[in-house]
Sequence to fold (188 residues):
Amino acid sequence: MEEMEQSMKMIEQALDLIPAGPILVNEEGKPIRPEDGKPILAANMVDSAKMGKIEEIVGKPVELDPTLQGSTAGFHDKVNVANKKVVLPPKEATYGNIEGLMNHFKLVMFGHGIRPPKGEVYFPVEAANGELGFYIVSDGTERPFRVRVRPPCFPITAALPLMLEGDMVADIVPTFGSVNMIAGELDR
Fold:
């Protein structure tokens, strides 16, 4: 208990040493209101591939892809095709139907999978933190030539140096926490 009381006294002494007045100031020493944040030019945001509620940040209307409208977009009940060679069988069909189970294994087995035509495709999907993108290059075989995943936090992390420009080292942690970055997405 004595250690806790001593810690509280140390914290109170440290708080007394903090100078009064605005803590968040710009390069000229003028205070910045926390609600204003640190404005970033729209061109810099595009260069950093900033995703999210850009309209609120820039103050200009932005036309979004319909898939990024969330709950306002309509739902698609059937997105699969009727071709059994391309679509995995329903889960229920694999339990009682041996043909469905065999079809499932044929799709995922080496040498028997889906054979898309040669070419490349990038497909973005709306994720919780922004755009989750899949880039796939096919050489016409059942194995992709190249697959890359672009996590939603990638452009956020790429924009961190721009957000921290002119700031102190101590600003890294709160800035990092304020952008809702998930480090596990980048740790690959």
